[in-house]
């Protein structure tokens, strides 16, 4: 009997954890970072009015349920004006908001700074 109760409790905890992923407020990582046609269409809809630079989504990182849904994309940044000094590939995080009616807008765009991720020769490990 104790084993049965233990198994039921474990199953209940697993179900609770699975349902918590869909609650509003928390970010859920994408199981597959591939940018599908549906995600590409959503991205294009949200960035269609953007000028000065364009972004090519290379990975879909996840979403957040709010009054609608927030989406996070890792993108390659491409300058959209001639004579740009940008020579090295640049990357950015593009966050979009999709409302309950299907309208999509930009929440924020943050440059992805590789230098801040790793400092060669410096270590936090002692």
Question: Which descriptors would you attach to this protein?
Answer:
5 strands, 37% strand, 27% helix, alpha+beta, Nuclear Transport Factor 2, Chain: A, 126 residues, disordered N terminus, 3 helices, 5-stranded antiparallel beta sheet
What can you see in these coordinates?
The protein has 126 residues and is of the alpha+beta class. It has three helices and five strands, in the order αβαββββα. A five-stranded antiparallel sheet has the order 1-2-3-4-5. Strand 2 (53-66) and strand 3 form a beta hairpin. The longest helix has 19 residues, at 2-20.
Q: What is Rg?
A: 20 Å
How large is the share of residues in beta strands?
35-45%
End-to-end separation: 49 Å
Number of helices: 3
User: What is the highest CATH level, the class?
Assistant: Alpha Beta
Mean pLDDT: 77
Question: What's the main sheet like?
Answer: 5 strands, antiparallel
**Helical content band:** 25-40%
CATH topology: Nuclear Transport Factor 2, Chain: A
Low-confidence stretches: 1-23
Structural class determined from secondary elements: alpha+beta
Tell me the overall shape: globular
Overall tally of structural domains? 1
Helix/strand order, N-terminal first = HEHEEEEH
CATH architecture: Roll
* Number of β-strand runs: 5
Biggest sheet strand order reads 1-2-3-4-5
């Amino acid at each position: 009997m104790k084993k049965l109760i233990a198994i039921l409790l474990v199953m209940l905890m697993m179900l609770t954890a699975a349902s918590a992923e869909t609650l509003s407020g928390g970010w859920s990582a994408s199981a597959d970072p591939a940018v599908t046609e549906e995600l590409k269409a959503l991205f294009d809809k949200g960035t269609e009015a953007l000028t000065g630079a364009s972004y090519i989504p290379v990975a879909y990182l996840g979403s957040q349920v709010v009054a609608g849904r927030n989406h996070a994309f890792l993108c390659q940044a491409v300058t959209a004006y001639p004579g740009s000094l940008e020579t090295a590939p640049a990357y950015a995080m593009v966050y979009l908001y999709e409302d309950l009616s299907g309208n999509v807008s930009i929440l924020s765009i943050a440059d992805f700074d590789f230098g801040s991720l790793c400092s060669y020769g410096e270590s936090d490990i002692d």
